[in-house]
Amino acid sequence: MAMNFPTSKRSFFIQVALFGTLVSSSLVACANDYSYDNSVYQFMEAERQKSSPNAMYQYEQNMQGSLFAVYPAYWRLNYNLDSQSPDTINNFVQKYPENVMSEKLAADYAETKAKSGDYSAVRAVAHSIENADASEACAIGLGYNGSGDMRALHQKSDVWLNTQIKQPLCEKLASELVNNPRITQTDKHEQLIRMMRIDNRQLSSKKAPLNKMNDIVNLARSLNLAIDYGTLSSIRNSPNTFFTQFANQPYSQTNQYLYVYAISLLANRSYWDASSQLNYDINQDKTRPRPLLSDMAKRYAWRSIAVKRMNMNTDDGFNIEAVNWFRNSLGEPFNQEEAEDYAQAAIYFSQWQDVVNAVLAMNVENQSQKAWQYWLARGYEQTGKQHDAKNIYRQLATGIDYYGLLAKDRLGIALTAQDLGGSHLPNISQKDQQRVMQDPYFARAFLLIQNNANPEHIQREWNWAVRMANKKNDTALILAAAKRAHDLGIYNRSIYAMENTPALRAGAISHPMPYQSSVVGYSRGVGIDPAWAYGIMRQESRFQTNARSGVGAGGLMQIMPGTAKQIARGMGESAGNMSNPDTNIRYGTWFLKDLSDKSSSQIAVATAGYNAGPGAAKKWLPKHGSIAADQYVEAIPYSETRDYVKHVMENTTIYSVLMGHGMPISQRMGNVSPSW
Predict the structure, then answer these.
(1) Secondary structure of 595-608 as H, E, C letters
(2) Which phi and psi (to 5°) does residue 547 adopt?
(3) d(CA 93, CA 70)
(4) In this predicted model, what pLDDT tens digit does every residue of 300-332 receive, in sequence order?
(5) Which residues are known to be catalytic?
(6) Which CATH code is given to the segment(s) 517-672?
(7) pLDDT tens digits for 334-350?
(8) Whole-number pLDDT of residue 577
(9) Rounded-to-integer distance, Cα 69 and Cα 284, Å
(10) In this structure, are residues 492 and 463 in contact, taking their beta carbons and an 8 Å threshold?
(11) Average confidence (pLDDT) over 467-480
């Protein structure tokens, strides 16, 4: 443990740092043990002044060789990042190798330079970015796009046909990839269709509609299509006028693209009007000597309408027409979002051949995801390919995630405590316990934890420490660090370590059970399974009592203030303090029981209601008959809620085993019916 210095002694270290009189050797850990590295105090003080480059320079000089020396150097360079040279960034990376802040600085720099179009600078630092997020990956792609390097195309599958891009740099890459010499005419055709389908689409109420007219005109020109701004503007203003004109014009290649454009614009306003128009034009074609619509145009038109229909499931509920419209579009390439929409619609309505078609329409990388492997197996199982289905289930069943648990059930394999690494805390050797604070990465994380540093810093350093230990396959170190975090009550970090180290199984650490008397007592008092309460709590807060969401939900079970008042009224009392763990658990378990009762004890529906609100969960119920709960969950339109329910059901199943009353996930979830 770190030394608890008196306030006067802490002040001494800070003052010394400020005046530059502390020699670096005094900051270096003794005997390879960083427990007493005092530079964390300088770090805390420096952070308060990080907007001052001069102050950071002084801290940088005084903290050389210390555990936290990288931070003032990072803050100094990041203050005016755009003015830095690539050499400066690379020198920083070389000075602080294998440091999370080195990769962050390089990534920040790459994004900054990609935005301004300085792609040579991006290329100069790209080698230092190994763990890029979506925006950073697109920045790297932009950097290499004009160089003929294949790395420019690494993001092509994610951005080229994607109609829901949220990152500006990824949208920029999608536009600029057209100039890449490796982009074919077929690629340009597919991108032109994409641009036509997303032009004037509003992805968010907070943002202006997309304007892709420049991209459309330039792409059309490269494909020798006579499409100009005036034509696009007139179709934007009145798609219906175009359809009237289309019917009176001879067949042309240009008109095929313009038809897709017009249908997409109309679908944005009303998918019903768009489907009626398309059906009308197809029927009219049957009476003509030569049809005016190509198969390509019809397929992409149906695709646009189907996607819009699926995007409206949050408002209009589900309808099998989406499956039919996607089926009509088979024969043209699917991007991932389209294939997922098709799969979700087919899953919801038990159209199993369509499920298979949708999954097989995905690229190999996406197809291999556990979710889509599971549903491919379900599709195979229902279409007479039981052998293929079982092979996939066997592969999935080796895991203890949501799909692994579902696959075990399909094979009749029971989950045991042994599969989870046991229900007791593991014994950690004295040597491995000592190694935790001898490792600079974990040492930084724990020193930040012990000094109540900004959670962002703690999370970044901890995640990096886990990553570095995994690179060395040092699972013993990760387990020792996770056990130490668990014992300190820092459950969010211990859980992260276990979740990101597949080779480790230690159920008591990955699925801790703090506040057990409250959780068990209140759960049984209202008549719900304590495992469900724990499953919710683990997903909501990772057992952080002070957790607070961006929308104001707080405490272990993340209860909104308005919901707390509603619960209090139901319990016949005034709203209690949600930061108090006991009160939070009491209110949360009562609310779970209320949701369970209102959803006819359909736990998947109640869990969806806990996250998205009972009204939304009810809207997604099947209108006629019942479906398996895994089908209901997979078709939830809100991606956040969909993932949330999966994690909670996984957590609940594991907790039930650890608590000695295991129930298979499929049995627990059961079926979902419209009876609510």
Answers:
(1) HHHHCCCCHHHHHH
(2) -65, 135
(3) 10
(4) 999 999 999 998 888 888 999 999 999 999 999
(5) 540
(6) 1.10.530.10
(7) 988 999 999 999 999 99
(8) 85
(9) 74
(10) no
(11) 98
Instruction: Inform me whether the pLDDT recorded for 453 exceeds 90.
Output: yes
Alpha helices, DSSP H only, in 385-454? 386-396, 402-411, 430-438, 440-450
**Cα separation, 149 vs 145, whole angstroms:** 7
pLDDT band at 6 (very low <50, low <70, confident <90, very high): very low
Q: How far is CA 420 from CA 415, 489, 655, 668, in A?
A: 8, 21, 10, 19
DSSP assignments along 22-48, one per residue:
S-GGGGSPBTTBGGG-THHHHHHHHHH
- Entry pTM: 0.91
DSSP E strand stretches across 566-673: 627-628, 671-672
pLDDT, tens digit, 9 for 90 and up, residues 19-59 = 343 334 334 444 579 998 999 999 999 999 999 999 999 99
Please report the DSSP string for 252-296 in residue order: -HHHHHHHHHHHHHHHHH-HHHHHHHHHHHHHHHTTSSS-SS-HH
479 is written with which tokens?
């387990």
pLDDT value at residue 558: 95
Return the sign of the alpha-carbon dihedral for residues 302, 305, 311, 313.
Answer: negative
- Alpha carbons 274 and 278: distance in angstroms, whole number: 6
Residue ranges per domain, the chain?
A: 7-159, 184-311, 430-505, 517-672
And the tokens for 76? 């100094």
Lowest mean pLDDT among 268-272, 300-304, 576-580: 576-580
Sign of the CA dihedral 146, 149, 155, 159? positive
465 pLDDT exceeds 50?
Answer: yes
Q: Output 114-117 pairs: Cβ under 8 A, ≥24 positions apart.
A: 114/138, 114/139, 114/142, 114/143, 114/169, 114/172, 115/168, 115/169, 116/82
Q: Which residues, in sequence order, are CB contacts of 203 under 8 Å at separation 6+? A: 164, 166, 210
